[in-house]
Each structure stands twice: as C-alpha cells, then as structure tokens.
Input
Amino acid sequence: MKDLQNSLDLRLAQLQALPKMKDGSIMDALKSHGFSRRDFMKWAGSMTALLALPASLAPSLAKAAEMADRLPVIWLHMAECTGCSESLLRSDTPSIDSLIFDYISLEYHETVMAASGWQAEENLEGAIEKYKGQYVLMVEGGIPAGQNAFYLSIGPEGKTGEAHAKHAAEHAAAIFAIGTCSSFGGIQAAAPNPTGAMPLHKVTNKPVINVPGCPPSEKNIVGNVLHYLLFGTLPALDSYNRPKWAYGNRIHDLCERRGHFDAGEFVEAFGDEGAKKGYCLYKVGCKGPYTFNNCSQERFNSHTSWPIQAGHGCIGCSEPNFWDNMGPFEEPLGDRLYKSVFGGLGSDAVADKIGIGVLALTGVAIAAHAVIASAKKAEE
Output
C-alpha cells in the first residue's frame, strides 16, 4: 500500500508540473454551481469506491480531479445519435461528474464547440499535432470501414470517419470507445449492416478501452478519465476490453428486484399485479442475467432511475451484438442458446476462466426456476 501511495504521489507531482490549460480552477467551477469542498470530497470518496480502490486513496483521487485541465481530450463523433455525449453534457442540474468533464481540456468535440467547416478541421489537426502522444482520444459511434467507409464522410475535405479515427488513434496516449456503437458496432452494425459499420478496435491496432452502454452512465465515462489521470495507465479489463470496475458484475447480481426472482415472483405481463408490486421482469424479457454493467448502482438522468426501476427489463445494451443477440427484447432467453462472440458464454467465462457452458446452463436454470416457481404459486 505504501508503494502504491508513493507511485501515486509521483504521478500527481508529474501532473502538477504540467501547464494549466484553463483559467480558474475546478473548485471555482464547483462553487459557482453550489457544490462545497465537502461535497467534492464526498464525491471523491464515492468515485474511489466505484473504481474499487482503497478508501485511503480518496484524497489522491481528489487531487487528480483538481488537475483535470492538464489532460487534453479529443472526442470524435462517428455514426451515432450523440446520446453518449448527451448523457454526460445535458443536465438541468449539472453533477460534479459533468462539471469535471466540462473542466477537462476538451480540445475537440463537435457537439459543444462553436467552430464548423474548415475551422473545425483545423482545430482537430492542430490539437492532434500540438498534443501528439499526450491526449486522450474518445470516440462515439460505429465506424463504416473498408469499401463502405464512404457512408460516413466528415468535414469540408470529405474525409471518411475511418480515416479520422485512424489518424487520431495513431497519436493518442489512451483510447476510449464511448458507448456500445463505438465499442461493439451497436445498432449501426446490426444485421444486415448495410454500411459495414465496425467498432473502433477494428480500425486501429492500438489498445482500445470499451465503455459500452446505450448510453453509458456519466460516472463510467468520467471514472475512466480519472483512472488514467491518477495512474497514467489503463484499468483492469475483461475479455471484451471493458473496465472490470464498471462491468465486473451482471445486472442480475445487483438488481433491486433480485429478491423477487429468488422468491419466484415474476411479472407475467406488463401492467399485471406483479408489475405493480415490482416483481422480477425476467419472464417479460429482462436480459439482466446476461448483461454486465453497473446501471443499478449508477442509474441515469442525474442518477434518478434506470430501465428496470421504471418497469422495463434490461435489453442487454452493453453486450456485443446486443441488437441481434438479445431480441426479442420482451421475451426471455432461457429457452434458447445465448448467441455471443464465444458461442454461448458470457464475457466473464473467458476473463475469469469459468467453465465452458456455464452461462448457457445458467439460462436453462433460470427457465427451470421460473417454471418451478410458477407451479408452486399455482398449487398455493
């Protein structure tokens, strides 16, 4: 632990030596929105826990966050709906997460910058050249590639999205695929995939950290930036290159309705008595047992709610090829083999060396559990 703290102190000293890229400070920005130093430290403590770090590192994480303006970020938009950016930037009551991201030196982001056309193109090239080897690249959206690259042309020179992504990735210090479209192709890559859309990791040979979700929570986006700020390295990953601190558990593991599942209490149809009582949504299609994410912890819309709390099952949006594999979204998967990249296994089966066929068997067990529970209810 002492060695870890010493290495963090060295990393923070390196950050402190870098020039500030913005006027003012993050604390000034937070105070102007009504957040106190106490609020900030409470947030740092919660982020430390979220990143699965010892609580004693909260002060170090807070210091790293205060120096967020030392980190240049380039954010590219590919074929997408901008929902990931909206998740982070659109809020009637900005959170500490969104304010810190706003304070980061965001050198290029088409949604929030005033420049357009030639000026925007110059800004992008200027940022890549100025901060070569230093900036963090974040890419949102699937990428039409190869002979289909022309389906996404950007800017006055008509460069393809694939060309922009390759060029920016070549000189980046760290690369994050933000959202399911950039991580796994998303709906753009759903069959029959007419534009040949691909995930970011298929158009570059550099390591890409996937932050899937449609959209991912703001904490999953900001948390990865903070991890890189604090350690200068990439986090521990699962077999789909997702950070384990955010995607290490199934939705089912931490679901607020899990107790109803264990008790055999299921919603049989939307609007029935079970739905009114908050019963488990597995029978109406919830994909929580097959999906890895921390939605139940982080929620959405300023951490107000999430789909299962609102009454609809998880659709598995943070899994590869979810649009093809998880549908129909309102029918359970337990009666058929789960078609994933690994032929029926979840990502943890490879990452944590769980035995072959476990997740497929889990699907059968869930179906059997539901049938037995229903039979017991009928007998009663």
Strands lie at 72-77, 105-109, 136-140, 143-144, 153-154, 159-160, 174-178, 197-198, 209-211. The radius of gyration is 22 Å.
